[in-house]
Structures are given as C-alpha cells and as structure tokens.
Amino acid sequence: MEFHYPNGRKYSPVKNEEKTEKKQKKWSYGKRGMTLEDDINETNQFYLERGIAAIHKKPTPVQIVQVDYPRRSAAVIKEAYFKQASTTDYNGVYKGKYIDFEAKETQNESSFPFKNFHRHQIQHMETILKQKGICFVLLRFSTAEEIYLLDAKDLLLFWERMETGGRKSMTKAEISERGHLISLGFQPRIDYIKIIDYVYNLNE
Amino acid sequence: MEFHYPNGRKYSPVKNEEKTEKKQKKWSYGKRGMTLEDDINETNQFYLERGIAAIHKKPTPVQIVQVDYPRRSAAVIKEAYFKQASTTDYNGVYKGKYIDFEAKETQNESSFPFKNFHRHQIQHMETILKQKGICFVLLRFSTAEEIYLLDAKDLLLFWERMETGGRKSMTKAEISERGHLISLGFQPRIDYIKIIDYVYNLNE
C-alpha cells in the first residue's frame, strides 16, 4: 500500500532519506548563496512577525513544460526548466517605501567580482531608482564574514566603470568606503533595516 | 540526431506541436484567470517600457524535489509541486510608493464570491496596509467585461462581514459603489495606474 503526503508526494521512508541527502549535497554545491539566503529569509521573517517590514524573496522562476495529474493526489510537474529572473530576488515595503535588493556573496577576500551580477538585474536596479524606490545590494565577503549594504547608485557607478573598460570588480576598500557594514546578530541575523533608516533618512 | 533549444529542451517539431496544443487546453481550463493575467502582464510591460511604473508578476512558487543534470544541456526539473503563494501575485514601485495587488475574476454576474481568495492573501494585504503600502484588488466580471479596482481596506471590510457570519461574497453594487471601474483599452489594456493617481492622491 502506498502513502502520500498532503501535497501528493509518495511516502517511502528509506529511499527518500537517501534522495534527500544526495539532493542537499547537490544544492549546496550548486547554490553557494544558500546560507546568506537562509539568513536573509530568517531576518525577513523576523521583520514580518514583529510588524517592522514586509519583505519577501521572490520564488525561483521556472518554465513549466509538462504537468501530470495523478488520481487522488496533487498535480506533479514532470518537466520544467530554470528561467533567468528578470528582477532582483527580494522586494517589499517598509514605512510605505518600496524596498528592492539583491544579495550576493564572494569567497574573494579583497574585491567583489561583477561576474556575480547579470545585466538584466543591473537594468532592473536602474528602473527602480528612476521610480524612486529604495534599491541596494547586500554583499557578503564569506571569508571575513562581513556583509555590506551598498546603494544601487554606487553599484551602477562601478558597473559603468567596468563597461567603459575598467576593472571587472569593486575593491573591498571601495565597498567599505561607500557602503555600510551591517552588524550581524542572532535575531535578526542581518539587521539591514536599521541601516536603511540611516542611509535613506527614514527616521520619523 | 537530436537538437536542443538553448534552454536544453529537446527539439522535436511534430510531437511538440501536439503537446503544446494539448497543454494549452489543459491550462486554460485549469487557470481561468489566464486572459486577465495576460492583459495585466501586457499592461505592466507597457508601464515598464515607458518608464511609468515597475510592477511585475511574481513567479509561481514551486517546490522542487528532483533535478536532473543531463550532459551538454540545462538542468531539468523532473519532479516538482505547486506551492501556495504566501503573498499576492503582483508588486512593484510607482512614484516611490510600494504597489501590491491581486487580480481575480468571476463568471458570476451580480456578485464576487470570496472563494476566489485565500486567507493568507487577505493576511498579506493587512500587513501591506499596516506598512502603508498601496494595496488593492483588480476584480473582473468576465461576462460584463468589467474590471474594478477595489482598495484592500474595502475588501477587508467585506471579508470581515463574511467572517462574522455575513454573506460569502461582495455584491456587484457594493463593488461599483466603493471601487473604481477601469476603462479598458488597447494600449495599455487595463490602465490601473490612472486610477491609482486619483484614488491615492499621487498627482504631483
């Protein structure tokens, strides 16, 4: 006899455990941003529960090709592909203002390479700035365990420098000069809202 | 010999055409909101291209269970499930303000049933209002081809009425009294930004 989870997935204790382990290894290899993403999600959850801000990560965009509808259980997507996102990953509202950001990390110790960013994300940030939204990046230097908030305006300047033949990265010195180091804590883990108040003059 | 699209999908002219036709039928049956969604996406694209607003539909949230990495082609998602969204479908920025909305339609001619809304979406709207975001619903009466913008505050009042034992829908009269009929056009198809200027006093 077969058992199913409420979402329709078949329950098979031994096999699934093996599969999960394998899958997690694959993921943590492929998605180095995992920890940073987890920390930001937890921080956003903290803000949401306390009524401080409502900021969410957007779902991963997926092109669905084939869906099966097995009897008595939920629809199963049998064939789909990852699509490139046309926006940044996080957005939401804080004190009525539109907040929009992307989070990236590097293992490089002295500079942040631009290969971590896609052109369409940069274009999206330009659009948000034109619409007077608050737009920034959270940049994590994973070896030093330091996270900086850098306004999109500054990021665009460095991007422009690359486009006109300059270096393909921002130095850590440049980031720490123009950006803002975020103090890391237990709850919330990455308290970027505090910095936003200060950087964008949102203190009432 | 096999050919592949840039996204890794196998090219097989005859079969695919059949599949697409079948799939589209399935989708339009399962997702009655298709046309409304298309019209809103086109409207948002219009706003984006002209620098009027930057509002996007969030990707459909999917729980990915199994991913294959075939040689020489893109990762293929082989098993995934639809997840329930924790927010509304559309958000973005207009004149610095956070914009958040959900779009629904009904074939009912005289009232809009609440069964089209989920509790978590209603809760999300409450949160957005507390954060002083602009939050509303676009309600389409498909038979009459009429679309109304109704502020989330009003929607919440009607929802509250249901929760306290009242009717499980809003009448069309109530919606037309408290909401705002949107004129439908060719470009943009559903010009809701015009209404927003008026309803939320955003004219400078």
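The CA atoms of residues 150 and 175 of chain B lie 7 Å apart.
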